[in-house]
Amino acid sequence: MNPPTAAERPDSTAVTGLAGLPVPEKGKDPLIVYRDVGKAFGKNVVYQGLDLEVRRGETLCVIGPSGVGKSVMLKLLTGLLDTDEGEIWFDGERVSDFHSDADYLAMRRRVAMVFQGAALFDSLTVYENVAYPLREQFDLEEDEIARRVTEKLAWVGLPGVEQKKPGELSGGMKKRVGLARSIATDPEVILYDEPTTGLDPVNIQRINGLILSLSERLKCTSVIVTHEMSTVFAVADRIAFVYDKKIEAVGEPEAMRTSRNPLVRGFIAGDPDTFKE
C-alpha cells in the first residue's frame, strides 16, 4: 500500500514536534524550519544538528566554505535528498516525513529552484524550456502558457528570445532563462543555488537586481546559496553561515559583517588564514 499523500494526512498541527518543541503552524512564521537535521553520504557527515528558520517573505543568504553542504540544504527541503535524522517543516507540514513524489507535489508547486548551471534542455527552444514546468505541474490553456512565458522573459530582460536554443545564448542569458523558467509558476518560495557562479561583474549585478525585483513582484520568500559577497550584501535580509556540520551563526547583514565570531568575520573578509586547507 502506498503511504498517504500530504493531503490525506491529518492536520499537521496534531503532529508532535521534535523533542516536544512547538509545531510550526500553517500560514504563520516561520515558513521553513530545519530542526536537528542530520545528513551523511557514507562516512562523510554533512550535517549534524542543523537548525535554521526561514521567515515568510524574507531573503536569506546561506554562505560558508566550499564543501560544507549549502546546496544539500536546499535539496533536503525539496525532496531531492532525504534526511537521515531530524525534521524539516514547510508551512506547517513536516516534509521530512514525505516518501514519494506525490507527497511533495503540492509543495513543489509553491517552491521553485534555480539551479547553478541553469539546467536548460539543449534540444528545446527557450519558449519550450520556460513552458516546461507549466505543462508538467499545471493544467493550463496554451494561450495562458504563452502569456506567462512572454511575461517572465520580459521580467528577466529577455523579450523576443523565445525561439532561440540554449546553445545560441551567452552564459548570463542562460542564467536568466533558467530564472524565467523557475518563476513561470509564480512561486511563493524561490531557492537559488549559486545563481551568479561563472558570471562577470556586470552580469552578477544584473542577477542581483533581478533577485530584488522578483522578490518585490512575487512577494516571495527567497533562500540563496552563494559565495558572492556582493550578492549577499545587495539582497539579503539575513545571512546564515554554515560551518562544521551546522549553522554557526545567523544575523542581519551589518551584524554579520561586524560579528565577533572569527569564522564569520574571516569568511566575509575572504581571509585565507581563517580557513587553512
Mean pLDDT: 89
At the fourth CATH level, what is the homologous superfamily? P-loop containing nucleotide triphosphate hydrolases
CATH architecture: 3-Layer(aba) Sandwich
- The geometry reads as globular
Distance from N terminus to C terminus (CA atoms, Å) equals: 50 Å
Quote the beta fraction.
15-25%
Which spans have pLDDT < 50 for at least 5 consecutive residues? 1-17
Compact summary:
The protein has nine helices and ten strands.
Structure in words:
This protein is of the alpha/beta class and 277 residues long. It is built from 9 helices and 10 strands. Strand 9 and strand 10 form a beta hairpin. It is globular, with a radius of gyration of 19 Å. Mean pLDDT is 89; it is low at 1-17.
How are the SSEs placed, and which strands pair?
Blueprint lengths: L31 E10 L2 E11 L4 E5 L6 H9 L6 E6 L2 E2 L6 H8 L2 E4 L11 H12 L4 H14 L15 H13 L5 E5 L7 H18 L2 E5 L3 H7 L2 E6 L2 E6 L1 H5 L4 H8 L8
Parallel strand pairs: 3-8, 3-9, 6-7, 7-8
Antiparallel strand pairs: 1-2, 1-4, 4-5, 9-10
Helix pairs in contact: 3-4, 3-5, 4-5, 6-7
